[in-house]
Inverse folding.
């Protein structure tokens, strides 16, 4: 069953997995970010997913955003071990889902496929324009995307995409595998982080049945209304929106700066404007998702 045909008018996805892991005392400052805990402390990833489910999320996004064959190879892990860790990311979310399944609600596991810039671990996911062609990006993403498509997840989260070219590469791969996915860009000032019009970026998913929803994530909450409108107009597909807290990321300091602007009341507007899946990204924790879930229930 398509997760958008679950019978719920609006679905709530989780918040920032790394945010919750950091709140639990983990230092995620290395290049693997939360993916490091797939090897070092998978039980902590289960606990973080469980916290978001208990807060009211019905979609868990796995800790595979920054996991890649190249990234793990730099830590001395071979392909077989990397495949095991990618699958462990999905298994962690499945375990958490099983632990909260007593209420009878349907919950979903979305295997995170982060951008090439996440592997670089230098803030490139907020710039795009890596100097790679669509074909090169497709070739780089293919092994991990295919592995996650075979991992038992319900769908793929092609997320935090900064660049139309990378969006096209990921959509082509999803279509080739025949596996369902959503596509979400990170945007700024009404354009992709690479500067392309949102209408053009979303259009790469139009007419591709494997892409179930399109939208934005890890952007300022203020960017969401225009993105919802652009995504609907360009594709006619359901829209997903899970912005960050509104604070700014400083890649040099590797820290968040400035005030936050994420509120559950803002999300009420996203739903009114047509978003079908709403949640949070970096710096949005279980408490904010619980408030969001309450707003969604009131709106239904």
């Amino acid at each position: 069953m398509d997760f958008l045909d679950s019978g719920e008018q609006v679905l709530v996805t989780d918040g920032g997995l790394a945010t919750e892991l950091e709140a639990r005392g983990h230092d995620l400052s290395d290049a693997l970010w939360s993916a490091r805990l797939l090897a070092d402390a998978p039980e902590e990833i289960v606990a973080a997913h469980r916290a978001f489910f208990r807060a009211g999320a019905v979609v868990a996004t796995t800790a595979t955003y920054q996991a890649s064959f190249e990234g793990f190879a730099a830590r001395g892990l071979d392909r077989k071990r990397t495949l095991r860790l990618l699958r462990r990311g999905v298994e962690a979310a499945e375990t958490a889902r099983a632990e909260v399944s007593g209420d009878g609600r349907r919950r979903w596991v979305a295997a995170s496929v982060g951008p090439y810039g996440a592997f670089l671990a230098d803030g490139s996911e907020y710039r795009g324009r890596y100097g790679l062609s669509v074909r090169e990006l497709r070739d780089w993403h293919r092994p991990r995307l295919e592995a996650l498509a075979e991992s038992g997840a319900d769908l793929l989260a092609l997320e935090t995409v900064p660049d139309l070219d990378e969006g096209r590469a990921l959509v082509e791969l999803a279509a080739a595998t025949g596996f369902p996915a959503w596509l979400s860009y990170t945007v700024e000032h009404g354009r992709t982080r690479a500067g392309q019009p949102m209408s053009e970026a979303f259009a790469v998913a139009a007419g591709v049945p494997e892409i179930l929803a399109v939208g934005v994530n890890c952007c300022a909450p203020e960017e969401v209304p225009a993105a919802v409108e652009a995504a609907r107009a360009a594709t006619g597909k359901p829209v997903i929106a899970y912005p960050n807290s509104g604070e700014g990321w400083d890649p040099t300091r590797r820290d968040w700066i400035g005030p936050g602007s994420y509120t559950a009341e803002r999300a009420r507007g996203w739903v009114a404007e047509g978003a079908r899946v709403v949640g949070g990204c970096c710096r949005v924790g279980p408490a904010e998702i619980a408030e969001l879930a309450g707003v969604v229930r009131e709106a239904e």
